[in-house]
Amino acid sequence: MKKIALVFAVAVLAPSLVLAWLAIRSLSHQQFLLERQQSLLCQGISDTLARSVQDELGNQQKGFNAALLALLDQREPTQVARSFDEVLRQKWPLADVGFAVTFSGGILAPTSPRPEARKFLAGNGQFLANRESAEVYLNTKQVLANSPATSPQSKGYAQAPADANSANQQSSWNVNNLRKVVPQQQLAFPQAAQVEENQQQFSKLAPSEAEFRQLIGNDAAGAVARFVDNKLCLLFWHVAPQNPELVFGSQVSLTRLEQALAPIIQQAPAQYRREYCLALLDDTAKPRAISHPGFRANWRRPFVATEIGEMLPHWEAAVYLLDPAKLSHAARSIKLTLGLLITVLLLAIGVGSWLIAADLNRQLRLARQKTDFVSNVSHELKTPLTSIRMFSELLAEGRVHDPAKQRSYLGIITAETARLTRLINNVLDFARMERGEKKYKFEACDFAALARQAAEAYRPNLEANGFQFGIELPDKPLMLTADRDALAQVIVNLLSNAEKYSNDHKQVEVELRVATTPLPYVELSVRDRGLGVPPGAGEKIFEKFYRAHDSLSSGIQGSGLGLTLARQIARAHGGDLVYEPRDGGGSCFNLRLPLAQPTEESESA
Ligand code: ADP
């Protein structure tokens, strides 16, 4: 049994409790997990948007190249260069300022005095003329010897940790140019966010320090982005095929570029727009295009965002939750459901364990009682057998001549034989009851007469042992339908117990009364002034094998079956047998049986 308890504890209880504990722990992570899932989903959306924006930028660059090549087809490159600013603005809608420079550092265009052109030259002139190097974001495949490693594809902050610090060591670009981003999901779970904070908060893109000539290298065309007075300046350039010394280029109008990019955001698939607001953010986190015009949010804290890339450094395709509360509601209801499940699980584990423990305990007790029973019965059989053998041998050998002594010995032999018979009857009856084979022979009988007969039969035994025995029975017959032998067995068991557990107070009484409520019944009380039943054991004494006074401590022999049988017989007759302590010490057992007019003889199983 102990082994089973151990196996249960190790194989079932401990793992269940560990699982329950893990489940409880995971409850507190629910919101984070949900947000994590949601952010993975949104990351896909913002990545797709960023790719579409990159594609559109590529298309615009191709548009510029086509417009330039068309012009160069019509005229000499040097002729085109002179009026390039004016002509390009007519031919290519995104042109802000057209420029033409030579590799040796000459600026051929723009030459007009219009303010945009003057401003352009003020900001970019030195750089285009190769007189100073500048911090640029490259979109060519060329990697300069002193530039930090830049990734061709930008990724979302939440997923692609950028090693801003190491980039910083390789180049002296200005950290202030990089926008600090705290994705919204991290706010809900600051502990988790903190771990990756350093890796997530800066843009992945780092500028390289280069001269214009250096970054062109051997390429035919490309794009370069740089910040001039903290304003983004995007330049497309193309080397003239007819004259590789000449480079044509254009500053892209960001306002018009924005108009070209807006449809990508506004016409994003409806399933995205149902739950999320999509936005194209510039390098100052200002929305340049949004899918839901009236939507307001802390633009610096998108749910997730993906950088567009080197052509638009620190611009992002960003995703915002239209209803951020929905996520916490969902997390709350998941938490509640899981919480309930875990509670039910814990309750089930608790109740199950309690039931198993109680059953194990019961089985252990029963096993112990069975062992005691075997030794008790063996002892109970041995004691009368020894007396019977001893006295019968004395008589048989003719060593006792005194007739009084002979009578006394014969009396002892009779009493001990009766005791043996009682014990064996009890054991056999108990075995029959356990197998459901006990049969009663119900017939009309006068219980007053039956009780008198049984009590008087026991009187010599009691009186021989010094007992005062009082019998109080009504004279009139009390008819009930009963199995005579079974009821006689109950009475003898009760009297035998009264005798056994009486100690020095040798006083036994039998009383029979009639009561009428709730139905007419008879009550036979067997009272003694003996040891009494210990407190708390008043019901247990009716359980099989249970002994409140065990043989070791009390020295009183018994099988623990007498009262079990007596109660079962009483109940089979529609009555009961109960114990009640007596004022002044001793026990009182009340046998209650319903009074009934017998109609017919019956046999019942
Ligand atoms: P046993 O063979 O042990 O007497 P019983 O089923 O007849 O078995 O009784 C169960 C237990 O109830 C006894 O072991 C004893 O502790 C207690 N008991 C029964 N009758 C009396 C009594 N008259 N006085 C005190 N205790 C009693």
Summarize, please.
This protein has 17 helices and 19 strands. By secondary structure, the protein is α+β, with helices and mostly antiparallel strands. Helix 1 runs antiparallel to helix 12 and helix 2 runs antiparallel to helix 12.
Explain the overall architecture:
With 605 residues, this protein is of the alpha+beta class. The chain has helices at residues 2-27, 30-74, 77-82, 84-91, 115-128, 164-170, 184-188, 190-200, 212-216, 254-266, 270-275, 324-396, 403-435, 447-464, 484-500, 551-554, 562-572; strands at residues 95-102, 107-109, 134-138, 208-210, 221-228, 231-239, 246-252, 276-281, 287-290, 304-309, 312-321, 440-446, 468-472, 479-482, 507-515, 521-528, 576-581, 587-594, 602-604. α1 runs antiparallel to α12 (324-396), α14 (447-464) packs parallel to α15 and α15 (484-500) runs antiparallel to α17 (562-572). The protein starts with a helix and ends with a strand. Mean pLDDT is 83; it is low at 140-200 and 598-605. Bound molecules: adenosine-5'-diphosphate (ADP). Adenosine-5'-diphosphate binds next to α15 and α17.
Q: Major sheet: order of its strands?
A: 2-1-7-6-5-3-4
Task: Give the helix/strand class.
Answer: alpha+beta
Helix content class: 40-55%
Please report the total strand number as a whole number: 19
Give Rg in angstroms: 53 Å
Structure ligands: adenosine-5'-diphosphate
Most strands sheet: 7 strands, antiparallel
Mean pLDDT: 83
Binned strand content: 15-25%
List low-confidence stretches: 140-200, 598-605
By DSSP (H or I, 4+ residues per run), the number of helices equals 17
| Cα shape | rod-shaped
Distance between the termini: 35 Å
Say what oligomer this is.
single chain
